[in-house]
Amino acid sequence: LYGFTTDRHEVTLGASAQLAENWRVFGTGTYDLEQSVLVKDGVGFAYSDDCFTYLMTFSESRDLSTKEVSQNIGFNLSFRTLGDFGSTQSSFNTVQ
């Protein structure tokens, strides 16, 4: 169960594509096989060079029992020799 209180039947797929020498775009999605619904999805872009990496992401997750959708925006700045700094901001929850 890997830390979850209930058994879950999901499949996750992710992909990344190089846009230019230092730029890439990426995305991921998690699909619930029992409920036939997308429970998580996210997209982002990244810049990476010899000195640092910058990531910007947007993601959504859906609670199947309450139908609530949570949206998050995040970023991460990582310096190769100094460490990293990041933040995620949760926006409003909507019911669908």
As a percent range, the share of helical residues equals under 10%
Number of helices: 0
- The N- and C-terminal alpha carbons lie at a distance of 28 Å
Topology pattern, helix = H, strand = E:
EEEEEE
Extended strand count:
6
Unreliable sequence segments:
none
Overall pLDDT level? 86
Molecular shape: elongated
Major sheet strand order: 1-2-3-4-5-6
Q: How many separate domains make up the residues?
A: 1
Biggest sheet, in brief? Answer: 6 strands, antiparallel
* Rg (C-alpha, Å): 16 Å
**Coarse structural class:** mainly beta
Assess the beta-strand content as a share of residues: over 45%
Task: Write a brief caption for the model.
Helix content is 0%, strand content 70%.
What does this entry look like structurally?
0% of the residues lie in helices and 70% in strands. With 96 residues, it is mainly beta. The chain has a six-stranded antiparallel beta sheet, with no helix packed on it. It has one domain (10-95). The protein is elongated. Strand 3 and strand 4 (52-62) form a beta hairpin.
What's the helix and strand layout?
Layout: E1 10-18, E2 23-32, E3 37-48, E4 52-62, E5 68-79, E6 83-95
Antiparallel strand pairs: 1-2, 2-3, 3-4, 4-5, 5-6
Key features of this structure:
96 residues; mainly beta
